[in-house]
Amino acid sequence: VCRETTVESSMKRDNKPNCPVLVPSVILHSRYRELAPHLVPLDYTNNPDIRVPLALIVAMPELKENPFRDRIVETFSEDGHGNLSFNDFVDMFSALCETSPRELKTIYAFKIYDFNRDSFICKEDLRKTLNKLTKGDLTPEEVTLVCDKSIEEADLDGDSKLSFSDFENMISKAPDFLSNFHVRI
Amino acid sequence: ASPVARDSSFPSSGEMAALKEEVEEKKKLIATLRNKPWRMKRRLTLLKEAQDFVEKFEGALGKGKGRKLFAFKVMMAKKLIKLKRDFENFKTACIPWEGKIKDVESHFGSSVASYFIFLRWMYGLNMVLLGLMFGLVVVPEVLMGLPYGSIPRKTVPREEQATAMDYSTLTDFEGYFKYSILFYGYYNNERQIGLLKFRLPLSYLLVGVGIFGYSLMVVIRTMARNANEGGDGGDEGDFTFSWKMFTSWDYLIGNPETADNKYASITTSFKESIVDEQMNQKDENIHLRRFLRVLANVLILCSLGGSGYLIYYVVKRSQVFANMNKDDLTWMEKNEVEFVMSLLGLVCPPLFEAIAELEDYHPRIALKWQLGRIFALFLGNLYTFLFALFDEVNAKLESEKDIKNATILALNEYAANYSSYYNTTNVPPQNVHPADVIRGPCWETAVGKEFVKLTVSDIQVTYLTILVGDFLRAVIVRFLNYCWCWDLEAGFPSYGEFDISGNVLGLIFNQGMIWMGAFYAPGLVGLNILRLLSSMYYQTWAVMCTNVPHERVFKASGSNNFYMGLLLLVLFLSLLPVVYTIMTLSPSFDCGPFSGQEKMYDVVMETIDQDLPAFIGNIFVYATNPGLIMPAVLLMVLALYYLNAVSKGYQQANIDLKKKMQMAREEEKNRRNNKDSTNQVMKDLEDLLPNKSLIPPPAEEDRSPKVKPGAAGKGVHLQRDVSLAAPNPRDPVTRDPGPRRGPPENARGPQPGQD
């Protein structure tokens, strides 16, 4: 799906076969429709304004085991509550796909981990991330220690929260980021 | 506002230039649209706008000045782009086993899947080798060479014909298999064969060398690609907790059991780091630890030496057996060598792991030691095997001399008899059936046979291990659990985990054997392809059916290039024996494409002398002149030295830049915290200075918060709605407020020293 496909007949747009933008393909559309067949029409010619609610999207097999699935879907939704239109759906999978560029993934990773959406990853965001990752198995002191250490490691401007440039600087050196932050559909 | 081209007049050159620029800009936008983090809707509207604009004005630009040519060029460019994209799509669709690997990935995580990706890569490499070998050597011989039975080397000898089709003979690669395209001995030494005048001996030699060349190129290219992508393996210790926080979850996991395991391993990993962080260096009994480590290494060296000796002994015995009658030998004695080698490969690694318990290393370091030891084991075994084989080869070369003499003697006798019987001097050639001719021992085929047998037994052992060690074990655990006293699934045997490093090393060494043996047994490459293909299906089935995800997800950092590095080493080591034999040993006199030559590379000399124009021969003569070679070698050494120096210079520059960044970062931090400076030296210096107020304010350049070290550079636009923390005073307050002055000439504040 991450291939640059030409326009498929199910999405009738102008006949511009040379656009390198990720134009939706049949596979994505059928997956999207699977989530809510009664809601999503087969024919997208008129660009209907349909949104599939959060609860249905996080039930997808690719996402259902992911601790951050709610945040992922919220990040890509326009209304911020996780209701994805087809465009958002395509956006999501193309940003998370294997060939998506590193910068793009970094931006979206930052947005996902920023729980309170204030453009900073503060201690509270870190705490939430950690609790989701360990399912609450660590003691509160251990949680505090880990959050403090993370901020200490990555924070460059000394405001005890991570701005985007701090995050980007830290993530750019991580060896596992690209291979772990990817969803295959 | 873009200038509109009117039909009646055409736009001035200035307008044209501006128009062209805008069109270029829009084109660039279209190309990079994918990388922008915008909503789909916005992207699509912008795309439509840009495309409309480009289409409208691209044609217009061509107006009046070779418009047709311009339009044609544009159309061709578009078609080319489309063609390229279709080709890329096609290439992606052709990648095999994508679905299978995705399955494995979602159940077992990316580290197990990396083995299967490596396997697939190997398969691709071997396909190319197969193409080379079969296309340029085997197929020409089959199509254009002499058929089976026409000359002695292609016929089963009379005494063997009775048993040539027996199963036991065939599994030993004797009989019909020995005299087939599988082995070196089948190929004829005619200089040119068939209508196309195909030069088979030359092709054989060049393909043999070309296999190594191609493999080398591919391995190095993959290593370079991995090194680029892996991020500049920077300071590992710097971001331990942040990386664990943000990059430890594997988004590919889709299976609840794997997810549970992942949660557990992440928690354990955090706890480990926390303990590491809190721990003081306990002063354990260093002497005991050192002693134990030395002891462990001694034990392991002993076992390595022991295994090497065992192999040597067994190969020597097999030479003795080879001279005895085949029927007197048991199966065990016939296949002793392969059996022993496989056994060692199975038994020693767990033994090494057990001994390594003494050493008490950090697990990642222990893993590296383990891999190193297994590597040494395999290497030692392989090379001992090779040395023993060489003894055999030399023995065969000796016996060949005798047979040669015997053949010449027989021929002379026949000529003498004939001329004395018929009283003529004109002796017609001896009319002997190919099956009856006296044969030389043909050492190359013997060597090739050994490699083929080794590969086959390796395959058998691997498959058997999976069947028994994984499948049978899983069946027992699953079904016997109902009537067993303790819980088999949680307790002793339980289900197996997939041994990534063992399997990868096995794959690497298998490839090493193929590389070594391909020159003597062209069919070996085909055998390997079959093996890789069946391995892929068999192992993916076994993994999904009988294995459980790892409890402790362990990754040796940067392991991708580690395995590639091993492969490169193995490639190099398997190159050596082949090159040695080509250069020094003389080929058999009656089998193979080089029979009759002094040395194998004489074929190349012959071709240069006879087939190529005279001046190329001269070039080669000049090129091999020592007076030319020595300066060339010297030049290469100098180039190496220069590149090394340059690379060291870059590394030093890197370190300096990092230090600078570190200092800038600390200065920022402490400036915000209103300290004077962090650097101890500076602090001391400040204390020494008599009057603090004379300290000039820090230079403006250090301070610009717009570009933080390592900050996001081009192309990243994040909307900042909320500004940073409340702005701090620009300078540390170190002076009493001075008298007012007029408007400052430069905005940089009071001049230093003028207080």
From TrEMBL, chain A:
<protein>
    <recommendedName>
        <fullName>Calcium and integrin-binding family member 2</fullName>
    </recommendedName>
</protein>
<dbReference type="GO" id="GO:0001750">
    <property type="term" value="C:photoreceptor outer segment"/>
</dbReference>
<dbReference type="GO" id="GO:0005509">
    <property type="term" value="F:calcium ion binding"/>
</dbReference>
<dbReference type="Pfam" id="PF13499">
    <property type="entry name" value="EF-hand_7"/>
</dbReference>
<feature type="domain" description="EF-hand">
    <location>
        <begin position="142"/>
        <end position="177"/>
    </location>
</feature>
<keyword id="KW-0460">Magnesium</keyword>
<keyword id="KW-0479">Metal-binding</keyword>
<dbReference type="GO" id="GO:0000287">
    <property type="term" value="F:magnesium ion binding"/>
</dbReference>
<dbReference type="GO" id="GO:0032420">
    <property type="term" value="C:stereocilium"/>
</dbReference>
<keyword id="KW-0472">Membrane</keyword>
<dbReference type="GO" id="GO:0001917">
    <property type="term" value="C:photoreceptor inner segment"/>
</dbReference>
<dbReference type="InterPro" id="IPR002048">
    <property type="entry name" value="EF_hand_dom"/>
</dbReference>
<keyword id="KW-0963">Cytoplasm</keyword>
<feature type="domain" description="EF-hand">
    <location>
        <begin position="101"/>
        <end position="136"/>
    </location>
</feature>
<keyword id="KW-0966">Cell projection</keyword>
<keyword id="KW-1003">Cell membrane</keyword>
<keyword id="KW-0677">Repeat</keyword>
<dbReference type="InterPro" id="IPR051433">
    <property type="entry name" value="CIBP"/>
</dbReference>
<dbReference type="GO" id="GO:0005886">
    <property type="term" value="C:plasma membrane"/>
</dbReference>
<keyword id="KW-0106">Calcium</keyword>
<dbReference type="InterPro" id="IPR011992">
    <property type="entry name" value="EF-hand-dom_pair"/>
</dbReference>
<dbReference type="GO" id="GO:0005737">
    <property type="term" value="C:cytoplasm"/>
</dbReference>
Automatic annotation (TrEMBL), chain B:
<dbReference type="InterPro" id="IPR038900">
    <property type="entry name" value="TMC"/>
</dbReference>
<feature type="transmembrane region" description="Helical">
    <location>
        <begin position="121"/>
        <end position="139"/>
    </location>
</feature>
<dbReference type="GO" id="GO:0005886">
    <property type="term" value="C:plasma membrane"/>
</dbReference>
<comment type="similarity">
    <text>Belongs to the TMC family.</text>
</comment>
<feature type="transmembrane region" description="Helical">
    <location>
        <begin position="202"/>
        <end position="220"/>
    </location>
</feature>
<feature type="transmembrane region" description="Helical">
    <location>
        <begin position="562"/>
        <end position="583"/>
    </location>
</feature>
<dbReference type="Pfam" id="PF07810">
    <property type="entry name" value="TMC"/>
</dbReference>
<feature type="compositionally biased region" description="Basic and acidic residues">
    <location>
        <begin position="732"/>
        <end position="743"/>
    </location>
</feature>
<feature type="domain" description="TMC">
    <location>
        <begin position="442"/>
        <end position="557"/>
    </location>
</feature>
<feature type="transmembrane region" description="Helical">
    <location>
        <begin position="512"/>
        <end position="530"/>
    </location>
</feature>
<keyword id="KW-0812">Transmembrane</keyword>
<keyword id="KW-1133">Transmembrane helix</keyword>
<dbReference type="GO" id="GO:0050910">
    <property type="term" value="P:detection of mechanical stimulus involved in sensory perception of sound"/>
</dbReference>
<dbReference type="GO" id="GO:0060005">
    <property type="term" value="P:vestibular reflex"/>
</dbReference>
<keyword id="KW-0472">Membrane</keyword>
<dbReference type="GO" id="GO:0008381">
    <property type="term" value="F:mechanosensitive monoatomic ion channel activity"/>
</dbReference>
<feature type="transmembrane region" description="Helical">
    <location>
        <begin position="294"/>
        <end position="315"/>
    </location>
</feature>
<dbReference type="InterPro" id="IPR012496">
    <property type="entry name" value="TMC_dom"/>
</dbReference>
<feature type="transmembrane region" description="Helical">
    <location>
        <begin position="370"/>
        <end position="390"/>
    </location>
</feature>
<protein>
    <recommendedName>
        <fullName>Transmembrane channel-like protein</fullName>
    </recommendedName>
</protein>
<feature type="region of interest" description="Disordered">
    <location>
        <begin position="689"/>
        <end position="755"/>
    </location>
</feature>
<feature type="transmembrane region" description="Helical">
    <location>
        <begin position="339"/>
        <end position="358"/>
    </location>
</feature>
